[in-house]
């Protein structure tokens, strides 16, 4: 006689399913046995990605308007809505549009979701409201996201800075804000950005604007909010194009150093990022007295400026990541450098200046130094050993410190873009 295996405790089954990442497997789990249905649905709806018309229609019809599925809306921890018109992908060496979400879907995304997801903690939006006229209740509906702690906005065009400001003020729980390419069509009046506000009180803030005027308008307003004293993590990517700004800057005398000085005292984690090799982000670190973690994107010839920037840092840094960005000339040659008849994966002239900077007393607590290089796998891998040896020679003081873990990371490029698809973490120097 067949004897059924003993049933696993429900708590153990739920824990196992929570570790399943594949969506198809989770859907199959829901079909196998009714006891697996609750945990499977909870895991399936943990992160929702709406990146195509069919996905949006399926979610609205099969979840939001379904009596059976509606209770599972509380399981959503992160929701992403991306209008693919902004993005493209590569197929057979050709750049192919993904296909836009229709205007009416983008118009109603916020009004439809806000009232049904009051407990949503994380939201990612990529919507061009300049292309699709937003519904009149769109920006007022953000106030219904009463539990939203993390908001990421990418390539979003707002009717005005005042609209964007009201959106942020309306979110009572907002702690993490990431703005990538956010824009409005004209500069706000100076008195608008000087208005004090009790919100937001951000702990983490990332900014990568294509418009210099928009960037400084937001920074100017944030220094009049609690964010000026609550911020502990910041990511700055000043990738301004080499063209005139879309509209005038409110106060041309203020630069990134001016705002960095205001936010700096409480910052413990900073990422100075750049997607443009010709425009690395160098700011004055002399006021970052609490900084513990620092990630710097530099060009292949910026060791001297990097060392000068670190010389000014007063805090006791624990972790330092340096990412060497590619430039146009080296990109075509797989980032291979030739120095003194030896091939390296990056240019090392001037790296010894970094060793001098890291020898200061406030770097005694530095326990991790990572140098990341971009390139193609078949070109970089053979250069690993020679590059490591050269870095050891350039950083003799740092290398001899037993407590300092120095690591070389390779970020492999795909043939079609400069975005990393995979990475290989090399063993620490032996």
Automatic annotation (TrEMBL):
This is WtsE. Gene3D superfamilies: Ribonuclease Inhibitor. It comes from the Eukaryota.
